[in-house]
Sequence to fold (304 residues):
Amino acid sequence: MTRYRGRFAPSPTGPLHFGSLVAATGSYLDARHQQGEWLLRIEDLDPPREIAGASDSIIRTLEQLGMTWDGPISYQSQRSHVYEEALEQLRQQGYLYDCGCSRREIADSAVVTEAGSVYPGTCRNGLPPGRSPRSMRVRVDAVTSRVQDRLQAPLQQQLATEVGDFIVRRADQLFSYQLAVVVDDAAQQISHVVRGADLLDSTPRQNYLQRLLGLSTPAYLHLPVAVDSKLAKLSKQTFAQSVTPDDRHGAVIDALRFLRQELPDSPHDASRDELWQWAIEHWDITALPACRTLTAPADYVAPS
Ligand code: GLU
Fold:
């Protein structure tokens, strides 16, 4: 039997807010309920989007919330060499190519679908004359990708017509999230991924890369994402309120309620550790709401 190993993988784009607390709580409880390990990975791959001090602030908040992780914290910013190797492997397999298109050119010629715009394949068979390489893309085969989620309805995606050849190294030379997450989940032997449903549509791309790179595919559970009344995901951009030190306990209770988990009588009277112990024992994935978004309690959304 595979040993359960889960993870929480925040991007340090701001302090921990209610939406990320929900992902942390769900992944933590699912792992601990199954006597599994829970790892912490800081996805600091994108310096332009990073906020100084956010990694430390997230780590400190998790500690203060009483969540304990196994092993050292890993940082994607220290793993460029591993992502380089994965790109090299894709290149040798003939799946990687240089793309010289700018965003504007793609916007002008791309087919737009519900999932976004589909790259038209301009550089697929070599850079057109006069173009220099900007980003790197992975060639996508005409296959149907199926995701069997532990909570959400099964997902089918035709990568070729719905996504197109996708970027694995950006024009600013940064590695893409899709590449790094796949390489790291495999390197850390993650058996179960529990995260927000905003990433469900990325899963077929990740499964595709796993197949190309010969890596195993973890089990996935995509939790409903906390949104505000305008259905925007809580984030730094939507000015989500961070989880504050004075009501951490209340925030965990709210996250458990959001996930429709059973609470002890008078949860506010339980100690921090008693609350976690209860939540671990009573974690019940059949109670989770199988939807992609849910409105967050008003305290955690931007003041209007
Ligand atoms: N770093 C991503 C985020 O903060 C999560 C990645 C994942 O769980 O796969 O949204």
Observations:
- The mean pLDDT is 93.
- Residues 9-11, 43, 181, 195, 199 surround glutamic acid (CB under 6 Å).
- The longest helix spans residues 18-33.
